């Protein structure tokens, strides 16, 4: 069989990966752009991932994504890391420049685009509360600080991690006021009352049995008051209206967002962030403008199919056929 020299292979590394929707949006984009390529799921345990990365020059991929738990690990195996990714401390997208592997962070770009374009929220001069202090939280805090947020409180069950983010970002964005506290403390409750935007950057809410990331009674109720009619239109003012964002996209409405919506606040889930970070990754790989609308539709269809599969499987067995668990040797060029 004649080999197509134009064929490209992309993929995502992580562990576990049965939940990922990335193949759906990227393969839809390849089809729309007329690119002969596939996007595969590469679920590797840590030892196998490190072994493969140590031989990265022989990997037959043209580019790849990296997710939990390898966003930090991958950095030492790359030839170059973009300054913003270095500052954030995590890489989620790797592309080629000649024969060199270059790492960047499109999570931060995806988050900001979702927040400002889909959410219509602009951080400049605002107060923010970030729940969580992992890699996603680092990207969120960096993005908010870059866009001129005034104050950021970071809360985590491991306050040392929150303090590390605050300390790192303080060196880069000195005008921002940072506070790092333990999750579930009175400081968090008080900050929720004063914040303009509250973001859940933890995995709490992925599972139905998860506890609430913050108690519902800590979320203030929006107060609405009628304004004097102007002409034929009657306007209403909202007092205490806040913006709540959850980086989780499945379920679309986590208990965190449901509580916020119930209290009258604006909400946004993480699907837009997933979409836009994927679009930027594709642009790094191909040099082409990503077909965002096509990718969005593919994500929505994939989510619908995953829910249907979940119901057909009795709610316990995930479809495993899309996940590759091959040893690293299968991703190297033949000798």
Structural overview:
The protein is of the alpha/beta class and 335 residues long. It has two domains: 8-104 and 291-331, Rossmann fold, CATH 3.40.50.10860; 108-270, Rossmann fold (3-Layer(aba) Sandwich). 36% of the residues lie in helices and 20% in strands. The chain has ten helices and 15 strands. The protein has helices spanning 22-33, 46-53, 83-88, 106-118, 135-146, 159-172, 186-194, 255-262, 271-286, 292-312, and strands at residues 8-14, 37-43, 63-66, 80-81, 93-97, 100-104, 127-131, 151-156, 177-182, 197-200, 223-226, 236-239, 243-246, 266-268, 323-324. A seven-stranded mixed beta sheet has the order 4-6-5-3-1-2-15. Helix 1 crosses helix 9 (271-286). It starts with 7 loop residues before the first strand and ends in an 11-residue tail after the last strand.
Please give a handful of descriptors for the protein shown.
335 residues; 10 helices; seven-stranded mixed β-sheet; alpha/beta; Rossmann fold; 2 domains
Summarize the structure.
By secondary structure, the chain is of the alpha/beta class. It has helices at 22-33, 46-53, 83-88, 106-118, 135-146, 159-172, 186-194, 255-262, 271-286, 292-312; strands spanning 8-14, 37-43, 63-66, 80-81, 93-97, 100-104, 127-131, 151-156, 177-182, 197-200, 223-226, 236-239, 243-246, 266-268, 323-324. The chain is built from ten helices and 15 strands.
Secondary-structure map with pairings?
Elements: E1 8-14, H1 22-33, E2 37-43, H2 46-53, E3 63-66, E4 80-81, H3 83-88, E5 93-97, E6 100-104, H4 106-118, E7 127-131, H5 135-146, E8 151-156, H6 159-172, E9 177-182, H7 186-194, E10 197-200, E11 223-226, E12 236-239, E13 243-246, H8 255-262, E14 266-268, H9 271-286, H10 292-312, E15 323-324
Parallel strand pairs: 1-2, 1-3, 2-15, 4-6, 7-8, 7-10, 8-9, 10-13, 13-14
Antiparallel strand pairs: 3-5, 5-6, 11-12
Helix pairs in contact: 1-9, 1-10, 4-5, 4-9, 9-10
């Amino acid at each position: 069989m004649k080999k197509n020299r134009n064929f490209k292979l992309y993929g995502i590394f992580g562990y576990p990966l049965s939940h990922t929707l990335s193949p759906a949006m990227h393969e839809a984009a390849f089809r729309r752009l007329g690119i002969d390529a596939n996007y595969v799921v590469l679920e590797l345990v840590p030892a196998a991932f490190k072994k493969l990365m140590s031989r990265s020059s022989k990997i037959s991929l043209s580019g790849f994504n990296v997710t939990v738990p390898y966003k930090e690990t991958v950095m030492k195996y790359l030839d170059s890391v973009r300054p913003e990714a270095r500052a954030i401390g995590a890489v989620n997208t790797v592309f080629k420049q000649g024969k060199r592997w270059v790492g960047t962070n499109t999570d931060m770009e995806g988050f900001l685009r979702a927040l400002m374009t889909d959410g219509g929220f602009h951080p400049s001069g605002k107060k923010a509360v970030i729940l969580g202090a992992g890699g996603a939280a680092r990207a969120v805090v960096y993005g908010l600080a870059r866009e001129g947020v005034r104050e950021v409180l970071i809360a985590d069950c491991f306050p040392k991690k929150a303090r590390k983010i605050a300390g790192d970002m303080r060196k880069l964005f000195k005008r921002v006021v940072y506070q790092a506290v333990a999750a579930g403390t009175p400081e968090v409750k008080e900050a929720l009352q004063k914040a303009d935007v509250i973001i859940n950057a933890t995995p709490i809410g992925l599972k139905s049995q998860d506890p609430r990331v913050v108690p519902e009674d800590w979320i203030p109720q929006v107060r609405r008051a009628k304004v004097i009619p102007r002409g034929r239109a009657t306007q209403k003012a909202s007092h205490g209206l806040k913006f709540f964002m959850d980086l989780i996209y499945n379920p679309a409405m986590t208990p965190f967002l449901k509580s916020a919506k119930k209290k009258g606040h604006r909400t946004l889930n993480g699907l837009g962030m997933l979409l836009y970070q994927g679009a930027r990754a594709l642009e790094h790989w191909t040099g082409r403008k990503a077909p965002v609308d096509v990718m969005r539709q593919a994500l929505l269809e994939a989510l619908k199919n995953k829910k249907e599969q979940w119901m057909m499987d009795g709610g316990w067995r995930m479809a495993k056929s899309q996940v590759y668990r091959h040893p690293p040797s299968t991703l190297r060029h033949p000798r």
